[in-house]
Design brief:
The protein is mostly beta strands. The chain contains 7 helices and 35 strands. It has a 22-stranded antiparallel beta barrel. A 5-stranded mixed β-sheet has the order 3-8-9-6-7. α4 packs antiparallel against α5. It is globular. The relative contact order is 0.14.
């Protein structure tokens, strides 16, 4: 707690002097921007959703957005945010394990997708490696916003592929109606015997203007039950070959073990999880001022399933490692688990100026102290420590005859260290600062938007005594026109630059959880992208249609590729840099087919696809394949019933040394009941996912060959709000 207090104090001292921060030690600006397209909730044509990713409200913002809230958020709520969002268009998930899953947007993951909480980064190490969990529990979310395409550029260089913003009530935004608001959500799931519950209370403290908030959540799961064989066909064949060789050499016990592994079904051993969060906030809301703070805690313990056939003594061949290998040979492989904890402080301030040019000023600050420990059995393997802060100041312009916008600056600092036999990334510091602006002009049915950001980064490895500095300029412009009533046709162009991260520059060592030896390149240059996107959107009562096609050409694209080499009995993955091209499309539609009294029957569908290639030949690794999802839904005053089919194609367009992934078809169904009617947030949902218990794997996952998705999962979810 002492170092957390020091970090908090330093952040609060630095925040008022944001404009004075200009040297190489300042941190970066990754502006969070709101887009304000209004859409219709599938459950009520008159229930509008306004997207409010801080801090510029009500802008169309260069297209490419989705919102998950209400009944859909209750139904799809999972332990990690990646799996929660995986049904949205253009979204997949890393699905490394049930306890760790980040979003994948248009094939991008890791350092190209920013995960935010109320516009500020999560300040964890989930971007460092796919086995590291995101420190957000979707149980505490009010809604989740997804930005794809040029709009996400305003969140910073690390959002070059998109951004995900989670909105909660931890810092109250308004006085609760009636003075008190209580929200409780819980779920039971059969595939992993999930037990989860979360709740929050907002309380107005009389007429003082103060509103108090408290929340908490708890989740616990057993080992996940899957819908087929644990191992992919390629790994099953590999284990059978090992069994044959062991039998020929007279090692019958080893041969039997390999055959048992090849035929393993049912439970995914070592995948259990337990996750807890706590939070409290206080806001003063009166007149033009809204000022609030919060403090929160995130704790998670989850299992990591390692690739079969790899020992766990992946460190250097010293006496300690040899002893560990000998112990494992005698007692069997030790289970790998991760214990993660984060303490976080947040501040949000909003003041309405009411001027003819400047309408309001907003400030957002987050500071966090994060530690996560990788265990091998009961022994501590490697400890990852991350301290950081992020702040953003934004000036919002008043609307002047169709012209409006916002400008601001942002800082970020991260201090990272890892200690242990598998500290593949040693002590390093990252500082960024930046300035940005977003402007919109409207003239009748014509809209023009433009955005720009300059960012300076300094990445220092204290272990290797190397410092790199980068300048990055990004800009985007878009135009759209109302070609039909409530229908917009638009085109965007963007030029984005991303500085390489410390992970990409300085990684060098074995990593047990990912079963890889990871090597960075300290000579990497900035990654540049030139993108174009064409979109068409129609939003009418009873009919919605969104389609987009995009093309992005990268110069010096950074990716982690397998080399075919081994180090310490682990496959070597190296960060490489080549030119690349990403292209794809997303189409989604929803239409009311018929009505019977107060019940309407809706059909909806979605298709997305992305293709990513390296110039000169070859494919970018871990790119999701073509996917189609279609559903039919009956929506009444109190009951909703839905059935859907999701078809995912085979992915055989793979990178060097990458295995193909078989496609799959999932059938899902859900029944929701609103006992107090749709205007109430109280609901009960019974859902069945993967009804036919099929073997399903996500190609975007590093572990897809030995960590399948859940088998048949019957879930009962409930939400009470009053």
């Amino acid at each position: 707690m002492r170092r957390f207090a020091v970090l908090l104090a330093s952040t609060l001292i630095a925040s008022p002097a944001l404009a004075a921060e200009h040297d190489s030690n300042t941190a970066g600006i990754q502006p969070a921007v709101a887009h304000g397209a209004e859409g219709h909730d599938h459950h009520d044509e008159e229930n509008e959703i306004v997207v409010t990713a801080p801090f510029v409200e009500d802008l169309d913002l260069l297209a490419g957005k989705s919102v998950l809230s209400g009944d859909e958020l209750v139904r799809d709520n999972r332990l990690q945010i990646g799996d929660t969002l995986a049904r949205l268009p253009g979204v997949s998930a890393t699905s490394f394990s049930p306890g760790s899953s980040r979003p994948v947007l248009r094939g991008f993951q890791g350092e190209r997708v920013r995960v935010l909480t109320d516009g500020i980064g999560t300040i964890d190490v989930s971007n460092t490696s796919a086995d590291h969990a995101v420190t957000i529990d979707p149980l505490t979310a009010e809604r989740i916003e997804v930005l794809r395409g040029p709009a996400a550029l305003l969140f910073g260089g690390q959002a070059i592929g998109g951004a995900v913003n989670v909105i909660d009530r931890r810092i109250p935004r308004a006085r609760p109606e009636g003075g008190t608001h209580v929200d409780v959500i819980g779920a039971l799931g059969s595939a992993a015997r999930e037990r989860s519950i979360g709740g929050s209370v907002d309380l107005a403290l009389g007429d003082s203007g103060f509103v108090f908030h408290v929340d908490g959540s708890f989740r616990k799961t057993d080992d996940l039950r899957v819908g087929g064989f644990i191992l992919s066909p390629e790994l099953r064949a590999e284990q059978r070959e090992i069994a044959r060789e062991e039998a020929e050499e007279g090692h019958q016990e080893e041969a039997v073990e390999a055959l048992e592994l090849a035929e393993a079904r049912g439970k995914l051993e070592g995948s259990a999880t337990e996750q807890k969060t706590y939070g409290a906030g206080l806001a003063f809301i009166r007149g033009p001022l809204n000022l609030g703070v919060s403090i929160s805690r995130f704790d998670s313990d989850y299992g990591v399933v390692t690739r079969p056939g790899l020992g766990h003594g992946h460190g250097h061949e010293d006496e300690a490692t040899i002893g560990l290998l000998a112990e494992e040979d005698e007692h069997g492989e030790e289970a790998v688990t991760i214990g993660l904890e984060q303490t976080r402080f947040d501040l949000r301030a909003d003041y309405e100026l009411g001027g003819s040019f400047l309408d309001r000023v907003r400030l957002r600050v987050g500071v966090a102290d994060y530690t996560h420990t990788e265990f091998e059995g009961d022994e501590v393997g490697t400890v990852f420590d991350n301290q950081g802060h992020e702040g953003r100041l934004e000036l919002i312009q008043a609307d002047q005859g169709g012209w409006r916008g916002a400008s601001g600056l942002q800082i970020m600092r991260r201090e990272f260290d890892a200690v242990g036999a598998e500290a593949f990334l040693r002590r390093n510091d990252t500082d960024q600062w930046g300035i940005f602006t977003l402007q919109e002009f409207r003239l009748g049915g014509l809209g023009v938007e433009a955005a720009a950001r300059y960012e300076r980064s300094r990445v220092e490895s204290l272990f290797f005594d190397i410092t790199r500095k980068f300048d990055a300029f990004s800009a985007a412009a878009g135009v759209h026109y109302e070609v039909v009533p409530s229908g917009k046709l638009g085109f965007n162009l963007s030029r984005a630059t991303r500085a390489p991260s410390a992970e990409e520059l300085f990684s060098d060592g074995p990593h047990l959880a990912t079963s890889a030896y990871e090597i960075g390149d300290p000579d990497l240059s900035t990654e540049k992208a030139l993108g174009a996107e064409l979109f068409f959107r129609v939003d009418r009562p009873g009919f919605e249609f969104n389609a987009s096609a995009y093309l992005t050409r990268f110069d010096d694209f950074i990716y982690e590729g397998e080399t075919g080499l081994e180090e310490d009995e682990l496959p070597v993955f190296r960060y490489l840099q080549r030119d690349a091209t990403h292209r794809g499309f997303e189409i989604e539609a929803s239409a009311t087919l018929a009505r019977a009294g107060s019940t309407r029957f809706v059909v909806d569908g979605m298709v997305d696809n992305v293709r990513a290639t390296l110039r000169g030949g070859g494919n970018v690794p871990r790119i999701p394949p073509l996917r189609l999802l279609g559903g039919v839904e009956a929506q009444g005053d109190r009951f909703d019933a839905r059935a859907e089919i999701e078809w995912v194609a085979d992915q055989d367009k793979v990178a060097a040394f990458e295995t193909r992934t078989d496609g799959h078809t999932l059938v899902n169904a859900a029944l929701s009941w609103h006992p107090l009617g749709k205007r109430s947030e109280t609901s009960f949902t019974l859902s069945a996912n993967n009804l036919f218990d099929v073997d399903a794997r996500r190609h975007a996952s590093f572990t897809k060959d030995f960590v399948p998705l859940a088998g048949r999962d019957i879930r009962l979810s409930a939400r009470f709000a009053f």
